[in-house]
Amino acid sequence: MKSKIKIAFVGCGFVSDYYMRTMAHYPILDLVAVYDQDVERAARFSKYYHIPFCHTYEEILHNPEIDLVVNLTTPQSHYLVSRQALLAGKNVYSEKPFTLDQDQSEELILMAREKGLRISGAPCAFLSTGARQLMAELHAGTIGQPRLAHIEMEDGPIHLMGPDKWKNNFGIPWPVESEFTLGSGLEHLGYALSWAIFLFGSVERWMGASSCVLPSKKIGAEVFSSIDYSVAVLKHRSGVVSRITCGIVAPKDRGITIVGDKGYLRLDDMWDNNAPVKKLIFTERRLKADRKAYIAGTWLGRRLFGLNPKKCKNRISTGQPKKWAQSNNMKMDYLLGVHDLAEAILYDRPPQISPEFVLEVNALTLQINNQRIGDEIVY
Ligand SMILES: NC(=O)c1ccc[n+]([C@@H]2O[C@H](COP(=O)([O-])OP(=O)(O)OC[C@H]3O[C@@H](n4cnc5c(N)ncnc54)[C@H](O)[C@@H]3O)[C@@H](O)[C@H]2O)c1
Questions:
Q1: Probe ligand 1: pick from 9, 15, 53, max atoms within 8 Å of CB?
Q2: pTM of the predicted model, to two decimals?
Q3: What is the spatial distance between Cα 379 and Cα 361, in angstroms, rounded to a whole number?
Q4: Which residue's CA is minimally distant from atom 4 of ligand 1?
Q5: 19, 54, 61, 59: which is closest to 39 by C-alpha?
Q6: 355 or 274, which is more confident?
Q7: Domains of the chain, start order
């Protein structure tokens, strides 16, 4: 049996660098080649990481050694690059959004199934240690029956942070034009949706829409008026209701709060692989105290009455080193999903991020993004 999965990156842009941060933690991943239609970018990646680069996509497609193509191209290219890989008999992992057209997404999934290939895609943050810890608390009944979740994917007013000056380790700029033309709905809704569906299962009914609330987002000389805010309420088949927000105008908040009969659980940052899970159990004394400004408004009052959520004890033991997560503000492990898919190929089992899951996240992303706040909602 094979002990490694040979992979190739297609797209050597900004994010490819993030994928390299944790590569050393996954011995089954063997990155053998990279390609970018911009040869200079592929060459820069190659020089920095000492991985061979190809001049054409065909070199990757015709290399019988390569098992898995990791599609890190711009969203507009996702469909074609993934499709070509499947046609060449390669398994595929794609960055989000999976495609920009749900029919194309379905076509790719069908094609993979017919060819006996595996396909999966980002976001994968919910495969993190923090997510497993959150799940363990839910299963342990810490807050009783979960009823409601608030899932925030607010990334802060990026246009005010000088994003035109951001560069990755090998000098590739953050793609301002692409990110701000597509908008935060297509770029980020997938994060909130994937956590919601991972935690509470498939969505039965939903309502949601997007808007441009700040049409004057200026970066350098350019002004962008793309989608910058989305909101949705999802009714999961499990009965839980989750409200998700996603945007680049409100202050940064990537927290998840799950409310149950007995209290609530909180994970402060869905992009932090090792985010601790906190809990607060409801008591009459506590809830009453929280309504009194002279108690809830003071540090001592909050402490004495236990109004701040407390860290849950670790139920999950993890071999994942914590130190890497602190470096470069990068606390999300982009390779969790690629590793999941590589294990699925190696051990001939379905990936945890299943094709059905990818399809549901993609469908909701596109629909919530395409519906405008203020329009008559037709479901
Ligand atoms: N930038 C981020 O912070 C970030 C974070 C998470 C996920 N992502 C996702 O990762 C993907 C890539 O984002 P990025 O920031 O690296 O963008 P980028 O524009 O920096 O890089 C994309 C690269 O893909 C190449 N490319 C485009 N079409 C191609 C094709 N047909 N064949 C070969 N190469 C092609 C481009 O030349 C470019 O170098 C996107 O789907 C994005 O949503 C980005």
A1: 15
A2: 0.95
A3: 17
A4: 15
A5: 54
A6: 355
A7: 5-124+334-348 (3.40.50.720), 126-322+364-370 (3.30.360.10)
